[in-house]
Amino acid sequence: xxAAAEAPASAGAVVRVRGASKHYGAVRAVDGVDLAVQRxxxxxxxxxxxxxKSTLFKMMLGLIPAxxxxxxxxxxxxxxxxxxxxxxxxxxxxxxxxxxxxxTGLETLHFFAKxxxxxxxGCGALLERVGLAHAAxxxxxxxxxxxxxxxxxxxxxxxxxxxxxxDEPTTGLDPEAIRExxxxxxxxxxxxxxxxxxxxxxxxIQERVDRLAIMAAGKVQALGTxxxxxxxxxxxLWFDVRVADSDFTAVRDALGSxxxxxxxxxxxxxxxxxxxxxxxxxxxxLATLGERVLDLHVRExxxxxxxxxxxx
Length: 312
Ligand SMILES: Nc1ncnc2c1ncn2[C@@H]1O[C@H](COP(=O)(O)OP(=O)(O)OP(=O)(O)O)[C@@H](O)[C@H]1O
Prior knowledge:
The chain is α/β, with parallel strands linked by helices and about 300 residues long. The chain has eleven helices and 14 strands.
């Protein structure tokens, strides 16, 4: 499948990946990936289990060497000696963050602060930022999965990183916590922090990232804004129409000979599926019904529809 346009020039990119591959014997975990993420961008990486997301993350962090290709963060190749300084600007939340059950939340952050050689003074404020101030003195053993995840996120924020890599950061979080999490991410983005995030929860990510890459079998199958990917896929749209007296025949008649992929009536509404290119013609046709149209809603294909189109 052709990747969508929209990839910005890699010249000013904070994260630049060119032809990166990682092979484990016959397994091509990552296979010729090109990617450029701009400063201050909130970038999503999605894909099925085993698509290669975590492996690519670890390569971008310089944690595992690439079999082939080049990866540079803030201009420094991850395999070079200059990367040591860049690493200080990076925060990382791994898929399975390792925490010590016997430490309290605050002790945990102090411990990570020491490892990162950053001052411990901000640890209390960080716990507050991720909503764990009330549990700062409790041992991690007593933390719920969501609380552990928040603590992992706090650890990633130690030292005010300029580039954040978050692998499945919302696992275990309840809906309110997910919302709070993205508020924090937007705040960080406004400060110019670059965020790269993986997620399996497409509905969650679709309205929140600036751009995303869909990975499958180690390759980037598509790259762009959610809207650009929708358009590249040319998936049909749905018009949901509520019409006076549930007069569905009037809707059918108004549409006349316009190409309609599907038309369904339920709950007093008519759902009309049309190709994107017919969108404005369908609007115009429905407008002829005047006040007999009581409500109208256009449903874009979800990221899930796009995802299955690109990753199957
Ligand atoms: N150390 C390793 N040795 C051998 N194969 C590996 C290794 N690490 C990853 N793989 C393989 O590489 C492929 C990509 O794995 P990866 O963990 O990057 O996928 P993922 O997209 O992060 O999956 P998930 O969503 O399940 O976390 C898989 O087939 C996996 O089995």
